[in-house]
Amino acid sequence: MKKLFCVVIFLFVLLVSENLFAQNNRWTWFAQSEKGDYLQVYYYDNTSISYWKDFSGNQYTELWIKITPISKDITHSVLKWRIYCKTKEILEVNYLDYYQNGYVYESEINYDKTSIVPETIGEDLDKGLCR
User: Which pTM does this prediction carry?
Assistant: First the structure.
């Protein structure tokens, strides 16, 4: 009876801890690069990946990206990226910068796509996300 009780408690703790810490698995590392004195680390939000089509029928993938650190004052940025698979273009829809003092800056919405540059983080995402 004591063993059964211990097993039940163990399973309960395991299930509860998995639910409590599930958000830790939200951001997945996918790249890093040096920018000045900083080593910037890139993560994507694996819960936000979605596939869409625009009015012209072009498929695109949308997801949130987190970059940390950005600068001495900005602890991290969260960006919404849209990757157009067929045309090999990328769009940074908007972003949020989180400052050390608690201030958060939100950018304007952007509608200007740019070509994905070979051997960049954008190309890595394109290869991994486009079907």
Answer: 0.73
